[in-house]
Amino acid sequence: MPDFALELKLAGPNGALICGVDEAGRGPLAGPVVAAAVILDRRKRPRGLDDSKKLTPEQRELLFGRLFDYARDGHAHIGIGAASVAEIGRLNIFHATMLAMCRAVTALRVHPAHALIDGNHAPRQLSCPSTPVVGGDALSISISAASIVAKVVRDRAMAKLHTRYPQYGWANNKGYGTPEHQEGLRLAGVSKHHRLGFAPVRSQLTLDLVLTN
User: pTM for the complete prediction?
Assistant: First the structure.
């Protein structure tokens, strides 16, 4: 289970504010990449926080609600950022993810002294010092909280898109390249929410162009 050890070490005796940052949606063929930044109160935190990938959708939704309850009571700060499909196409998924993380940290209502970033890279444009933490969502409770927020926000966005584009099955696959999604691509073609730089989408787009010419 993740704990608060990394945060306490960086916070020091003065209790500097440390945020955890994580993303959701680097791998899908469609939809935005979403990032979250979370600062937790060292004395009062929701129980059950863990890497979002280890939680059921119901557990994530429950903890998401609790995190925002704590934020309303002043025991947490939450920032959310995203990079659009157009930005992913223009920048590539890595740099778009870094942009989403910067936006999430900027969206915090307080300025963190340090950011713990899940993964092996940290955005260069952050307004505070940062440390990348490989497997951070299983080590740092702040990163695990951020992973939950980012995942729920993105899943909800894909479920909303599904109501307009049900042929791709986004409510279930969240834009990942499942057989259901790829069959939808084959039958319905490429939508404006697909990432044109990703190989399966690019291949389908090429095929569509060939068939229409």
Answer: 0.94
